[in-house]
Amino acid sequence: MTLRSRAQSALALVLLAVLVIGCKSSGTSALSTSSKTDPPGNTNSGTNSTTPPSNSAPAAPPDIAGKYNVIGSNPDGGQYRGTLEIILHGSVYQFRWHAGTQYDGVGVFNGNVVAVAFASGANGKGCGVVDYEIASDGALEGKWGYWGTDEAGTEKATRTGGSGLAGEYDATGRNPNGKEYKANLTVEPAGNLYRFVWSNNTDGVGIKQGTNIAVGIGGARCGFVAYEIRPDGLEGIWGGYGTDKTGTEKATKQ
């Protein structure tokens, strides 16, 4: 990321599938409907929900909005510095970097992790991110978002085959508009990362840290970041399509 090099690294890394950032002033997009023709990876379906809302109130987003100084390392070993602004939009976040080049993305939080998908420039359209916590039985409990939509969706994937993280899953989820969907999900190793493929022709690449897996979606133009929330800011690992090499970034609140 010189965040300049990040433009090149995140865009030029053409990985099997990917993860993490921002949401311009209007937010992210949505997974889709009951047959999962739009899982964490489509958007703007615009369908109205026929499913009653959940009785449980969503968890409040963490207080990470603000301005940060960032320092990081690129996958090739070079370093960069810049600034980052995080803006809350509904239940997702816009991430906006400046470091020689502007980057814009959408982020969702899950537990102590904020996962972000981003692109070079001020328009992150098409970039999405999913963040899962891995349960003791191997199930994946996730939140997801797309650039251009201000609310997050949810997804639970139950293992039907495989071992470890790799394997086959039955996924059920809810779009930001309340519409439910179902899909099959396959997870397979991709070097140090993991490839996620949903049965609606959506795919992405994930970074696993402990019991958390952050997955970026959107193709070669989208990079992804998985941040852990720290008392003084954020510490993350980031990558892009085309390689399993990753960079690091630390963002300290101004």
Q: Which descriptors would you attach to this protein?
A:
eight-stranded antiparallel beta barrel; single chain; about 250 residues; 1 helix; about 50% strand; mainly beta
Question: Could you give a short description of this structure?
Answer:
The chain contains 1 helix and 16 strands. It starts with a helix and ends with a strand.
Low-pLDDT regions = 1-38, 41-56
From the spread of the alpha carbons, the general shape counts as globular
Number of domains: 1
Q: Number of helical segments?
A: 1
Category from helices, strands and their pairing? mainly beta
Major sheet: order of its strands? 1-2-3-4-5-14-15-16
Strand content: over 45%
Biggest beta sheet summary: 8 strands, antiparallel, barrel
Compute the number of strand runs.
Answer: 16
List the helices and strands in order: HEEEEEEEEEEEEEEEE
> Considering DSSP H and I runs of 4 or more, what fraction of the residues is helical?
under 10%
Cα end-to-end separation: 20 Å
Q: What would you report as the Rg, rounded to the nearest angstrom?
A: 16 Å
The average pLDDT score comes to 81
